[in-house]
Amino acid sequence: MHTKVEKLKEQLQATRSNLLTHPVYTQIKDLSGLQNFAQYHVFAVWDFMSLLKSLQINLTSVTLPWLPVGSANSRYLINEIVLGEESDIDEQGNRISHFELYMAAMRQMGANVNLIESLLGFISNGLSIDEAIQKAQMPDLVKQFLQFTFKIAIHAPLHVKAAVFTFGREDLIPDMFNQILNEIYNEHPDKVSIFKYYIERHIEVDGGHHSHLALEMVAELCENDPIKWEEATGASIQSLHMRAKLWDAILVK
Questions:
Q1: What share of the chain is helix, strand, coil (3-state, %, to 5)?
Q2: Is the dihedral of CA 195, 196, 201, 207 positive or negative?
Q3: Omega within 30 of 0 (cis) for the link into 226
Q4: How many CB atoms neighbour CB 125 within 10 A?
């Protein structure tokens, strides 16, 4: 693997380890705990798509008339990730985005979807993302998490967006979570089957093939520029701290 990518990952290790041992995971002991977790975690599933689409906008041509943009390798990398995230398959083989799959899982388990649907409703009715976040009834820590994401998605340099997308959203599901999920599934298979499928699919696709593609993208965008690598590292660390704020919101609740 690219040596500068490895160095960046090493610099993130302490922050990432703290996040993987966050006390939020000890609060998920039963179906009720999973429901509470999901109603906030869904915001990370949703805004991930906006980060992804901001990269696609910058790395490919999405306007008319079409013109080639950037390198064909970067175009391929981001388009393949978009294909999988925006139009994957559910457990019956039907095409679905990962966000829509997560929402289906929430409804099946009986989790509260009011917070995320309220935010999306404001956006659908024409409010800007900043206005929608401010107006939405959600904890301040969740708002801070979303505000950081969209600050990156809208204003950050391309290499910083790619780094936050790659390292700030890298697989953050500890083994403990999977063990607890299996126990809850054994008790409530009719309530948790979609969520279990989502997590398994997330590990298989996002944590596997897509992760390798994203690492290639960061390496290509940062090249051999030490300033870009420094900026990518700083933003990635900050993104992990912001994910911790989202987890903190669940504990406060």
A1: 80, 0, 20
A2: positive
A3: no
A4: 8
Q: Which of 4, 22, 10 is nearest to 243 (CA)?
A: 22
Return the structure tokens found at 245: 């704020």
Q: Give the pTM.
A: 0.94
Count how many Cα atoms sit within 13 Å of the Cα of residue 217 in the half-sphere of its side chain. 32
Tokens of 69: 């943009």
pLDDT values of the chain reduced to their tens digit, one per residue, 253 residues: 579 999 999 999 999 999 999 999 999 999 999 999 999 999 999 999 999 999 999 999 999 999 999 889 889 989 998 998 999 999 999 999 999 999 999 999 999 999 999 999 999 999 999 999 999 999 999 999 999 999 999 999 999 999 999 998 766 788 889 899 999 999 999 999 999 999 988 877 766 667 788 899 999 999 999 999 999 999 999 999 999 999 999 998 5
In a 13 Å sphere around the CA of 72, the CA atoms on its Cβ side amount to: 0
